[in-house]
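Repro:
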Amino acid sequence: MPVRSFSIECRIYWEDTDAGGVVYYANYLKFMERCRSDWLRALNIDQQRLRAERQLQFVVVNVSVDFLRPAVLNDEIRVTAELERLSGATILFEQTIARGDVQLIDASVRVACLDSGTLKPRPIPKDLFVEWRNGE
C-alpha cells in the first residue's frame, strides 16, 4: 500500500525572503503545493493527464496555517504532506514545514476535485487513491 505521507527537501533562496530576510509568508504555501504535487507524481498521478483526458483538476479550497517559527536564507527545510481524509470530492491534508527538529509551520489544507470545464465539484474517481477509501 502506498504511504499516506510524503516529504520533500527545499533550500531557502533570496527570492523566497522578504525585506527582513525571512521567508515571505505566502511562499510557505508554494512549498506545501510543491510537496502535494510531488506526492501525486510519486503515486503516478499525472495532473495534466487528469485534466486533458478526464476533465478533472484539484484546487485548494481552504488553508489554515500556524506560523510557528520563521525560515531564513539558506535554511534547508523539510515539507510534509499527509493524507488525513478522503471523501466525496475533497481531500484533507495535514502539512508541516520543519528545519531539522524545529517545526516552523503547521497547516491543514483542503483540496477539492473539480470538473475542469464547469469548475464545479466532482467526486474523486474511485480508481484514484483506491487504497485509502473508507467503505465508499
